[in-house]
Every structure is written in C-alpha cells, then in structure tokens.
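Hi R.,

As promised on Friday, here is the backbone we talked about, encoded as structure tokens. Could you run it through your design pipeline when you get a chance and send me back a sequence?
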C-alpha cells in the first residue's frame, strides 16, 4: 500500500502538471486569436463567433426565414459587429457584399435581441469598409429578399453573369438549367 504522504505528493505533481498544461494551452489560444485579429484587421473586442477557423453553427431567423454564417462576430462595448472577409481586391465594396453583410446584421439583431450599428467588410488588399446598418439598408435588404423569393417562386430567375466560378459557387448550381 502507498503511504498517504506519497499519494498526496503524486496528486500535487499531477495537479501542477495539469495547471502548467492548461496555462500553456490558454496562451497558445490567446496568441492564435490575436494573430487572427491582426491578419484580418478585426476590430478590438471579443470574437464570439467564427466561421473561418472551423465551421460554425449557422444563425437562423425564423421571423425573416433567413440563414447565414458571418466570418466573425465581434462583441465590443456591448455591441455585436459582424465581420465579413473577402479575398477580392477592390476600391469600393460590392453591392452583393453589402447585402450579405446586412443579412448578417439582421440575423445578429434577432439572435442577440440588440441593435447592430454597423458591419465590417474587409477585402484582400487590406481595405476595410464600415457599413452602417441603418433603416434604409434594412429596408433595402427586406425588399431584396422579397424580390428574390418572388422570383424563385415564379421561376423567373435568369443568370446575370458569365463566370464559371460564380456558377460553381452558387447554391442553385445542381438544379440550375442555366449553369455554365
């Protein structure tokens, strides 16, 4: 039988080793998060959601019948900010990217029951655009969603590009009769 003092000593050693492991692991995670923030020019605050490092659970709005996965959600000063990273190089944000970001703002408002002041688009050339999520953009998003749903129901959607990459990335690719 092992004496009680030896058993306590072994338990203390195991606890110290586990504590050291936990400390080193938390440092590694903290450094990884900081590196990610710097790489993607993510604003200060806590990253509370990420779909880039590993697949995340989609956000879903029952009210708007909308689903989406922003690249990041940052909580800063009690505000939730969606961040969307684009590999594209541009000197102006694309309208489709603005609408995508607005959809994430709407999803976040419903999920967290709070007003989202803006979203952030970050492009491959380091350009960053702060897109205010105001009543005008919210109205435009809802009207766009209404038009898309109408066109899907009426089966009147026409391809508006000649890009094979866009076709392959489209969620309707498998069922589309206009694909390239």
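Update: got your reply. Pasting your designed sequence below so it's all in one thread:
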């Amino acid at each position: 039988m092992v004496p009680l003092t030896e058993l306590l000593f072994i338990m203390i050693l195991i606890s110290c080793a586990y504590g050291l492991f936990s400390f080193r692991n938390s440092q590694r995670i903290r450094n990884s998060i900081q590196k990610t923030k710097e790489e993607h020019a993510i604003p200060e605050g806590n990253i509370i959601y990420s779909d880039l490092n590993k697949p995340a659970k989609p956000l879903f709005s029952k009210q708007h019948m909308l689903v989406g996965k922003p690249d990041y959600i940052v909580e800063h000063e009690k505000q939730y900010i969606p961040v969307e990273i684009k590999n594209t190089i541009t000197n102006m944000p694309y309208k489709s990217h603005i609408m995508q970001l607005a959809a994430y703002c709407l999803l976040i408002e419903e999920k967290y029951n709070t007003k989202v002041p803006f979203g952030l688009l970050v492009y491959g050339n380091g350009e960053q655009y702060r897109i205010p999520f105001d009543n005008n953009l919210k109205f435009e998003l809802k009207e766009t969603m209404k038009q898309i749903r109408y066109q899907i129901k009426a089966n009147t959607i026409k391809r508006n590009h000649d890009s094979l990459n866009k076709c392959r990335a489209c969620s309707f690719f498998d069922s589309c009769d206009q694909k390239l």
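One thing I noticed while checking it: The mean pLDDT is 84.

Thanks again,
M.
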